[in-house]
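Exercise 7. Predict the joint structure of the components listed below.
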Amino acid sequence: MNEQTKYRLRDEVKVRKEKFGGLVYDHKDGKLQFIHSHLIMCFLENDGTYSVQEMAEKIAPGKIKGNAMEFIMKSLTDLHKGGVIHEV
Amino acid sequence: MKYEWLLEGLTAPICVTWEVTFACNLSCEHCLSASGKRKPDELTYEEAKAMIDDLAAMGVCYINIGGGEPLMRPDFLELVEYAGEKGLPVQFSTNGTLITEKMAKRIAAIPHVRVQVSIDGATEEVNDSIRGKGSFAGALRAVELLSKENIELSVNMVATRSNFDQIEDLYQIVRGHGAKFRVARLRPSGRGIDSYHYLHLTPEQNIQLYQWVKAHPDVTTGDSYFILSALGEPIPGLNVCGASRATCCITPTGNVYPCAFLINDDCMVGNIREKPLSQMWIDAPLFEKFRTTRVKACLGCPSYNDCGGGCHAVSYHLTGDLFEKDPECLISYRKTKRKEVTV
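Solution:
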């Protein structure tokens, strides 16, 4: 994945926002993950229309860059490897 | 506290345990709900569907169905199918004795269903002494039928003094069928109130079980063995009680409790015929008490982070206090042993 990648949740994955961030639940294998970041939960709202960079601009225009973008890319890459999201 | 973010409670349960009926064709020695006969006021099909609607709207991740024996309820599979239509995955526990080839095919057609078969020994002799005559053969047949249909399958064993020596053997049988293996803790509820005293593992057996679970990372413990995690490296899963925070239980008659092992009058939160669970989850005082009360006796213990004080249901049934230290605490046991050696 890179900043230009368009992505979305896999169909069998559901997310739920919580005070600490949110839950990611995979209906297929029953795997549950706790996401301790409100920012990442916002990025998981993408339905495939936007790239990572475009989502960053939608969520916080001009503010997600440098270390913050690195954190986002690492987290989304991990979620991609874990089968939570896929490239469109 | 490692799980502070969870102890405060979630916006909705991750999982709701629904005991669909008290009817059961077996009479297991340790049954958590003392099941046997169906109660006349169990939820109707329409009431059960309304409950499923509520759980789906809340965003519950999945329903964990038990009983009684769920398949004793004639409309059970229709309700599972309905949950599937609503996008709610179901895991149900069964003794397996009523599963037929036709039924296995029907279950296989429902999306995201997981089945758990209860077996409490690696031999007919041991299993049937706990679960009743013919239950071992019936359960194994169910495992074969369900495996054949590629249904996601696990076998659950309640670890007791009777079957402790057979855990590895049953694990091998289960893996041989391509199923997952789960070891659950015996709790003194239902018929377990009496049998707990002669069936629950000794502290030394619990310590051995910890080592065995650590050596078998594919085995789960149903998030029930928090006490083991206090012994060192935590075992996989959630090592803190999820009652009222991430889960709760609905009985066949619609009563709501913090967990399936606390089906007692003074632990009742309400009834879904009077108020939907979605509302109770927000404003029930007992749920709130679970979320805000800590196990005082454990606060100074360095292992509190690893076990959260243990199982509230065991504490309740053995001491009368929901928030007392788990009487099977292995840290306390080790301290006592050390003192004995010193003396």
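Discussion. Chain B touches chain A through 16 residues (CB under 8 Å).
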